[in-house]
Amino acid sequence: MHSTDQIVFLFNPSQGKTYHKLLEELPRREDPRNQISFTSASATMNRILVSRQLRARAPQTALSWFTSLNISRSIHGVPFATVEVEEISGSQPAEVLNLVQGKWKNTNRWNTILDPLNGEPFIRVCEVDETGIQPFVESLSKCPKHGLHNPFKAPERYLMLGDISAKAGHMLSLPKVSDFFTRLIQRVAPKSYHQASGEVYVTQKFLENFSSDQVRFLARSFGVPGNHLGQQSHGFRWPYGPVAIITPFNFPLEIPVLQLMGALYMGNKPVLKVDSKVSIVMEQMMRLLHYCGLPTEDVDFINSDGQAMNKLLLEGNPRMTLFTGSSRVADKLAGDLKGRVKLEDAGFDWKILGPDVHEEDYVAWVCDQDAYACSGQKCSAQSMLFIHENWSKTSLLSKMKDLAERRNLEDLTIGPVLTFTTEAMLEHKNKLLQIPGSKVLFGGEPLTNHSIPPVYGAIEPTAIFVPLEEILKDKNYELVTREIFGPFQIVTDYKNDQLPLVLDALERMHAHLTAAVVSNDPLFLQEVIGNTVNGTTYAGLRARTTGAPQNHWFGPAGDPRGAGIGTPEAIKLVWSCHREIIYDVGPLPKQWKTPPST
């Protein structure tokens, strides 16, 4: 680093307040040689030239803010960023590094990620193989079982994390920062701008929710009077210490941030692995958190394949692992880690339209959003729709068809499917059509006129009708309820006296994440809710399966391994355990004598 560094900000006068706030947040040293000058480049563009002359041998603490700040890349008002979203391409690939023991590091092993929209090799991810996990194992081993903090140790960290959350939430509220993450999400997990920005917004609100004193409120204890003077029992929330977090591709920012911060709030030291296809988003978010004051040693960030990560978990022996992803991997981890896991695995999510028909246009729109937003790549996506015979007499299905057909690649309201190929989804469709009475309601064809690489999938929003009686047959049930993580749903109908058959179909499902009961009939709601188990169930005319915000629990039910996300209850359940401290300080009764043996 030169002794003189310049940071240049270009901004539009109409956005001046935003940039002034960013400028005010830049770390400043009490040094008269720090100069800030303003020059006008044109009538519509201004240049702020920030000249910081730094001592060649300045203390590391005074320069630590530079470790997560690539000055040459911060010209657009995103001071922590090391990439320019629009510049990422085959000719200028971005690079994603690993963070371990407080330092960003690379290796000699690079995984090239293809652009989901055109197939260009546009991101190089530095991946750790099985021979390179030792620094991560050592880092986890340095954290004791009682954590980085707990109610009796380093309580000031609760306050520090509250402050970091407030600053990070504020940063995400800045239009330039929000737009940066929204567009970055779109580059790696193509979805509409509205869907991507919604993910950033939920993350921002979560961080705001847990600012200031809210972090220490998570560790609130309780006391119960004892049997005699001087005795009291107190219950505390206690961290696990070293933990691991594994998150999928479909929500590159929201899921890892909410789980990571929950782990930190409760006093744990996490190692975080995000699907390499999208890990650039969380790498940039880690840099934002460092910029907001998070110590770089508090979190390790690893890119690896599943085999290397599995070895890290076995050798590093984290006290708890949070996994969000497929049921197959979840069950393997549960066995490998001897049950020390919390899971949010697959969700074959259902929606029931009750007997009361209201607001047909609205219900059709919500069905379309639930099934096809983010190209159906949500763990809460509507996988099966049960339509009461009263709804079958309406134009609901034709309206759903019209809504599905207006989705297009140009605005990414439909896009590439990252875990199923086109051939795999069409093969599943063809198998379903072999069931008597089944038919294509709409979709079912590959997308055309695109450059999505064949390693990914690209099909039209699809709905397949299968008769309820056929769904319930043993030979068909597993096929019909197979989760296709894409724009694909099963539709069936039922008569008023067939509700028990519908409930039987739901009882046989093994994944119980989200559900929707679309009805304002209280007796119908009571019947369905009382005979089902899904952990996040929406009920009423406006019920949906997707779009969970940060203000309520999101997670499965019916499984003791089930994880939650987003709320104080979820954080305490997943990232802490109960510890009871019984104080018994006396005094002894004045006439106490040693009693007989018992």
Automatic annotation (TrEMBL):
PROSITE patterns per the UniProt record, alphabetical: ALDEHYDE_DEHYDR_CYS (PS00070)
Gene Ontology molecular-function annotations: aldehyde dehydrogenase (NAD+) activity; L-glutamate gamma-semialdehyde dehydrogenase activity
GO process terms (BP): L-proline catabolic process to L-glutamate
GO CC field: mitochondrion
InterPro entries named among the record's database cross-references: Ald_DH/histidinol_DH, Ald_DH_C, Ald_DH_CS_CYS, Ald_DH_N, Aldehyde_DH_dom, ALDH7A1-like
Keywords of the record: NAD, Oxidoreductase
SUPFAM superfamilies reported in the protein's UniProt record: ALDH-like
One protein family per Pfam: Aldedh
Domain Aldehyde dehydrogenase: 177-539
Annotated TM spans: none
Highest taxon of source: Eukaryota
Family: Belongs to the aldehyde dehydrogenase family.
Protein name as it appears in the record: Aldehyde dehydrogenase
Lineage of producing organism: Eukaryota, Viridiplantae, Streptophyta, Embryophyta, Tracheophyta
